[in-house]
Structure prediction request, 219 residues.
Amino acid sequence: MLRLYDHRTGRAEPLPAGPGLRVQILPGAGYRTLVVADLLRRIVQRSGRRVRLVSTPVPPDGAWADYGVAPFEMLDDPLADADVYVSSGADADALCLAVPAETGVKPPDALAARLVMLEAAYREPVELSDERLSAASARLDAWRGKLAEWATSPGRPMSRDYAARAEAALADDLDSAGALTVLDRLAGDPDVPPGAKLETFIHLDMVLALGLVSAIGSV
Prediction:
């Protein structure tokens, strides 16, 4: 069960029940706010619930799509009755994810920037430095290269054990850093067949949205 930190209680609380979830991105959102809202939507959708993700207008250049953020609905005014709010600034008087805006340089690779954002807890500050972006780009390249290699091996079912570990991390207040650590451990586990590693990475990247399959076919 997905739990999110609620500033009103100081604890991680379960999501409101129901077949659907309304998520509102509040005005002033930076790219990191959009990435966190997108991650939340993907996790909830994985559980079988419908998600309506809405935002007040954001910069029209469409660069948010480069960050792996799937299309969302734009409204002139925020919803007054959303189930979850996502904000770059002050908390709303409701269940609200307070996501400090990213700082630092303009990233040359938006997906590397998304990875840097996912490597930290969403409530902690993130600086997009040249060093961190370079390290994230190298991490992505290494994973993509492994997927390209694994794709040449016999197919196997995904590792449900590793998938469950990553999903448990994500359900714990969107612990994306914990889920990424699970991927690192899976990649280095000699007891998991390459085909199973491939399927597990693909399964989890549907939530993490890091474009890990982009090198498949290059080996």
Observations:
- Helices lie at 31-46, 110-118, 130-150, 160-171, 176-187, 194-208.
- The chain has a mean pLDDT of 93.
- The beta strands are 3-6, 11-14, 20-25, 50-55, 73-74, 84-87, 96-98, 103-104, 127-128.
- The chain is about 40% helix and 15% strand.
